[in-house]
Amino acid sequence: MSTVLQDDDRKTFAGIADVLIPAAEGMPAASEIGIQGEILDKVLGFRPDLRENLLRGLRAAKGKEPRAAAETLNKTDGPAFGAISLAASAGYYMDPKVRKLIGYPGQENRPYNPDETPEYVRNGMLKVVSDRGPIFKPTPK
């Protein structure tokens, strides 16, 4: 089995991804963001362990109606369906347009100063806990 994604593989992936992530409530369908192109390549670059199961699933689903293909894979080849599902969902949330629509800027660098008292201690949020005192049950001997 060739491990290179062919055009048919990408088309099949786009169809199944749209079943898993359809357009709804202002959010684009997976294929509308180009999930089957560069995004899929990035996902597989980060997770090369998905490639074998993903390709097996896509090739088994080739030429079939996407919803039926997804349902069949889910019942008969869990690892393949899992790889396709993970690649679709991970790729979808990697897209900058999608992240903007959900208000998630992505990972941010937040400097940490170990000598600074954390905000949750400074603002008194834990005072009720410290005022309460220890509550625990000793382990049996």
Strand and helix layout:
Elements: H1 7-20, H2 35-46, H3 51-61, H4 66-76, H5 78-94, H6 96-102, H7 119-122, H8 127-132
Would you kindly provide a written description of the structure presented here, covering whatever features stand out?
- There is one protein chain.
- The chain is 58% helix and 0% strand.
- The chain is an all-alpha fold.
- The longest helix has 17 residues, at 78-94.
- The chain has helices at 7-20, 35-46, 51-61, 66-76, 78-94, 96-102, 119-122, 127-132.
- It is built from eight helices and no strands.
- The protein has a domain at 7-102.
Question: What is the gist of this entry?
Answer:
The chain has 8 helices and no strands. The protein is mainly alpha-helical and 141 residues long. It has a domain at 7-102.
Give keywords.
single chain; 141 residues; mainly alpha; 58% helix; elongated
Q: What characteristic shape results from the CA principal axes?
A: elongated
Beta fraction: under 5%
**In whole angstroms, how far apart are the ends?**
59 Å
Q: Characterize the main sheet.
A: none
The helix tally amounts to 8
Radius of gyration, in Å, reads 23 Å
The topology string of helices and strands comes to HHHHHHHH
| Rounded average pLDDT | 94
Fraction of residues in H or I helices: 55-70%
* Total DSSP E strands: 0
Class of secondary structure makeup: mainly alpha
Low-confidence runs:
none
